[in-house]
Design a protein that fits this description.
The chain is an all-alpha fold. The chain folds into two domains: 3-36 and 52-141, no CATH class; 153-259, Receptor-associated Protein. The chain is 84% helix and 0% strand. The chain is built from 13 helices and no strands. The protein has helices at residues 3-23, 29-38, 47-52, 56-74, 78-91, 99-123, 127-141, 143-175, 180-188, 193-206, 211-222, 225-240, 244-304. The longest helix is centred in the last third of the chain and has 61 residues, at 244-304. The protein is flat, with a radius of gyration of 29 Å. The chain starts with a helix and ends with a helix.
């Protein structure tokens, strides 16, 4: 099969997700500013001009993707939808991604992979091409899930690393005379996923939500074990009247101890993980370098005799 035909099939198969990605991206700042300025102005009588003034995403792509997401939603179990929404929250993409967008992207990528597989089968009908096409289709279909999982794991790791330092800052502020909410407000001005989540928690409290409920929502958005133990200890201290500064200092010390223990555990696992690369990669090359010349001389001596 000609390489040009293969490249054409690949280009046709990837054109659909690339077009969707390009057209469904966020509008630039100028377009958003223009839309904000037009809000509140009297609507024009010409509906055709008003419709054409909208972007290609609002006129064509958004209704198409909404219909596709609606059909996917009807065939999707409710538990799977809740799981996807939870992964979006853990990844910190709640403002940019929705479950409907995830399902639509999975459908578009899956259709693109199936189209590419169909074209390759028409050009080269063989079992090997079919298996490769099915593997590529499955990879494209599960690509959004892998992206969400990786993004969520990285974000949880960053929160876990920031937690001890954030608790130290809150402890210093509380011992200096600030209330817990004001201390959290000062910490929320920093950068990172944990200050952002603390800022959202503080906003929930300011809107009238009980502090315990706001902290439980924080745990749902992060799912970090150290943060969960701190929240439970804080709720118990607030319930029984234990000084908050004492709880903060104790929890900060425990979290630092756990972080050091995890680092030591990873260091102890490192020699075991290095056994297979050493045996499979380094030792064969070392044997070739050390024993190779001797083996060549022995072979030459036997050949001469």
């Amino acid at each position: 099969m000609s390489p040009i035909v293969i490249l054409g099939a690949l280009a046709l198969g990837t054109s659909i997700p690339l077009a969707w990605w390009a057209l469904s991206g966020a509008r630039d700042e100028r377009a958003q500013a223009t839309g904000n300025l037009r809000m509140g102005t009297p609507s024009t009588a010409n509906l055709r001009e008003a419709r054409l003034a909208e972007s290609a995403q609002d006129r064509v792509l958004s209704p198409m993707m909404s219909g596709l997401a609606g059909r996917a939603r009807r065939w999707t179990p409710s538990g799977l939808r809740d799981s996807v929404e939870q992964r979006i929250q853990l990844a910190g993409l709640g403002e940019d991604w929705t479950p409907d967008r995830v399902f639509a992207s999975k459908a578009v990528l899956g259709i693109a992979g199936a189209t590419m597989t169909f074209l390759l089968i028409l050009l080269t009908p063989s079992l090997k091409v079919l298996l490769i096409g099915l593997a590529i289709t499955a990879l494209l279909f599960f690509l959004p899930d892998v992206r969400l999982q990786s993004k969520g794991a990285d974000r949880q790791q960053v929160i876990e690393n920031q937690l001890a330092d954030v608790l130290d800052q809150i402890t210093v502020c509380v011992e200096a005379g600030l209330s817990f909410d004001n201390a959290v407000l000062r910490v929320a001005r920093g950068s990172g996923p944990l200050p952002e989540e603390l800022g959202r928690t503080l906003q929930d409290v300011q809107l009238g939500m009980p502090r315990s409920a706001a902290l439980e929502r924080l745990l749902e958005r992060t799912d970090v074990s150290d943060l969960r133990s701190f929240v439970h200890a804080f709720n118990q201290a607030e319930k029984y009247g234990i000084p908050i500064a004492q709880i903060l200092r104790v929890q900060s010390t425990e979290i630092r101890t756990k972080r050091r223990q995890r680092a030591e555990e990873r260091a102890l696992k490192l020699p075991v993980k290095l056994v297979f690369p050493v045996v499979l990669c380094i030792l064969p090359a070392l044997f070739v370098v050390v024993a190779g010349p001797a083996a060549i001389r022995v072979a030459e001596s036997f050949s001469t005799t």
